[in-house]
């Protein structure tokens, strides 16, 4: 009963937030969005697809989490947070585990992510080693999507993006600001720069300090959705920004992070609850 009440309250909040946003134009539908069919999942098309992170420290934990994600109909995509592993520096062991996870997930796509310390992750790595590790992964890809941080060395980002595409792996280009929410124009510029750099999916996550910061992120998402055909993955983090993970369905977003068990970033909500909320508020395709 409490869970139903909580969902109802969030739906009311979602409606209230959307109604209170004068900066949004009347038309909030996505422009023609690029679609990618990955393991029979249509990314870029409505409904918004949910991503659940694998946040394990050990191989056994990762396998267990992958099995749960594979069996949950509300989880569309899994993200393998490699930097959280106890053996993240052991490339061969990571690749072997990645292959196992990919098989367990069956028809659900897998994102491979090294979230570096500079962007709020656990791995401290030079640009040279960052490129080297990803090059090793791409020799025999275990993922269908690869997260590449846009502010790594520009040459490395360009080379890795090309290599990923050569290997038929989609690139999620990302940026994370755990300290603040940049100005709206800055957020827009970063996302559009990712597009120019060859990204297939454009991602940014920012930390709000006020309600206005949450509006800033959502306004930027809407604005960029009308300037690019690439799918967007944007979020305002923390409890204050949780509504952005639901409202993205109305602001031109194509994907949203949920969780099963442990969150990989502040503000994530249970994926089953997220799916229910998304189904309620998103536009009819």
- Mean pLDDT metric: 90
The unreliable regions are 1-30
Strand proportion, as a percent range, falls in 15-25%
Q: What structural class do the secondary elements suggest?
A: alpha/beta
The number of helices is 9
- Give, in order, the helices and strands: HEEEHEHEHEHEHEHEHEEH
Strand order of the largest sheet: 9-8-7-6-5-4-3-10-11
- Major sheet details: 9 strands, parallel
Helix content: 40-55%
Distance between the termini: 31 Å
According to DSSP, the number of beta strands is: 11
Query: What is the overall silhouette?
Result: globular
Using the CA coordinates, give the radius of gyration: 18 Å
Molecular structure report:
By secondary structure, the protein is α/β, with parallel strands linked by helices. The protein is built from 9 helices and 11 strands. It has helices at 2-19, 59-71, 91-105, 127-139, 154-166, 184-196, 211-225, 238-251, 271-281; strands spanning 36-38, 41-43, 49-54, 77-81, 110-113, 145-149, 170-177, 201-206, 232-236, 255-259, 269-270. The strands form 2 sheets. A 9-stranded parallel sheet has the order 9-8-7-6-5-4-3-10-11. A two-stranded antiparallel sheet has the order 1-2. A hairpin with a 2-residue loop joins strand 1 and strand 2.
